[in-house]
Write a structure and sequence with these properties.
Elements: E1 4-9, H1 14-24, E2 33-35, E3 38-40, H2 47-62, E4 68-73, H3 79-85, E5 94-96, H4 101-108, H5 115-119, E6 126-132, E7 147-151, H6 159-173, E8 177-183, H7 207-220, E9 223-230, E10 244-251, H8 257-261, E11 270-277, H9 283-314, H10 324-330, H11 339-345, E12 351-353, E13 356-360, H12 361-364, H13 368-374, H14 377-384, E14 396-400
Parallel strand pairs: 1-4, 4-7, 5-6, 7-8
Antiparallel strand pairs: 2-3, 6-11, 8-10, 9-10, 12-13, 13-14
Helix pairs in contact: 9-13
Amino acid sequence: GLKETSAFLSQRNLKTMAENNIECNSVVGGNVEEVPNKKIIKFNPPLYKQRYQFVKNLVEQHQPKKQRFMISAGTGFCLGNTSLLCQYSDFIGPRELARPSEYLKSIGSRLSPCMGDHLDPRELDLVITLYHGSVLEKDCRLLGFDLVACIELIEHFDSEDLAKFPEVVFGYTSPAMIVISTPNSDFNSLFPSTVFRDSDHKFEWSRMQFQTWALDVANRYSYSVEFTGVGEPPAGAEDVGYCTQIGVFRKKAKSTESAVLEHHGEHVYEVIYTTSYPSLQQMNYCRRVVTYLVYREVHRMKRRCQVSRRQHELEPESADPGNPTRKFISDLPVPVLTEADKAMEMTPQPFCIGDKFYVPLERIIACPRLRHICGNVEKLREFLADVVELNCDGSAVKVDLHDCGDY
């Protein structure tokens, strides 16, 4: 099925974004390096990576049923983070980014499928669409999501926008899960400067302030909330908590799909770019992968047969213990059979008739990935029709035992 993701960014200055990364990407191994009159705290991995990895782990842990995923982010979001988000391969689709149109257009081509995506298609469909818009605007395309992640976003809101944010995200979009991260001002005492971590921040909350706001919003919109964070403090300063505090909200009363589909509204976001990735849901790519895997398995078995025949032909010449050919054959490593190999050995063996080599389809379908894609021999036969030569009753793949590529 089609998997979708949306990502929203507040429209901010790129210079501010870079400054934010420099200031906040600052604890290697939990150690603090002392410099004259200053403390430099460095996070490894960088703090922005820890935030997105947290969301990625959360998605993988809960496996949302609809598999529609949205990201909202503040100034710390850049192309490198977009690449990281692309690792959410099972939960990516339309990506809404509220960054200036020129910036979105410049990165659109980098989200296109590469040659490797065509050679090894993904399991499920993936459509990536970039939109330009604001997380404070209601767009009906945002309805029905399983998870919304707002990464370093709310601290950029003034009081009016902050009041509107829960109404749109919790009330209107109303996903099954919402993840909100924001700076923990309790941690700021460890930084060289006591000012906000970014010049665009309108506020930075302590843990008590964030939890008070989050519990109030959760109560108003029928969510539960748990608190955690990323960016551990250095030894001896554990009382300040995580550098980034995170609230994970879960909806108590789940809305039905029909209710979501009946909710009509406007499309307020501008479409900047869209692309579709190859997948095994598309018949042409699926058949191509199956054909490649079949030829690979058949060639592997044919080579094994050829080696066995050559060794058998050399055996009479190996009677002399000093014969180097005999020594070479005896020194060949004994292959270690995997569980897949053992299962395959229980199937009908390949065989030769004249100069033709035959591999039963029952043996080919024992290949784990082919069994996963095709399911059974009948489906495998359908994929191979008119593409791979089969024997007269269609029960085995038929190839030449010897060809120029074997020498």
